[in-house]
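User: Teach me something about this protein's shape.
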Amino acid sequence: MLKKSVDELMVADHVPPHKWRAVISIVALLCLAAVLLVTALMLGAANPPQARTLILDVTPSTELPCAPLTSNSCVVSLGNLPAPPFTIEAAARNDGVSTSGWGLWLGQREAPTDASLFLIDNDGYIVTNSTSDDWRQFIHARPRENVLTLHVTESATATLRINEEVAWQGTLSVDNLSTFGILLYGEQDITWREVRLYAG
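Assistant: First, the predicted structure itself:
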């Protein structure tokens, strides 16, 4: 047993120096890569893309006028849209009936029904970039409280995230979208958290 241990030590003592240097270099590189990865994540490298400058930060009042859109929906206008890129974030709680909903409306005041709609209801169904009631289920939708984030790039490529999960990606006709607002649908009971608009 003692002879075997001595032999093992002798083998270890005869590992070529260049192999030890290679092992140490690999370990050092792995440690450096781990530090760089952690630093990048702390700086937001894994965050979804977002326009840089906050230009609107509001908590919409339930007393704001809601212009009728259809027989069971209306739009609370929040202002003009900047040129892409831009990001809209909206957070709210809906204590209305299960089929009621809310979401983002992007369009023109002159033709409010010809718009891009992004809606979510209390049954976990959503409408994405549609002008009709084209509902589909989305597993990351919550029964009451949700966050909708729409990011539009300079090339008009858009990504909708609901509760930080990608719900839709596509292209918007930004030339036809000059204003934005919040669309209320059905017998909703909305408590607003915030609505933010970023540009640039």
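Now, about its shape. Residues 24 and 192 are 56 Å apart (CA to CA). Residues 38-46 have pLDDT under 50 and may be disordered. If you'd like, I can walk through any region in more detail.
User: That's plenty for now, thanks!
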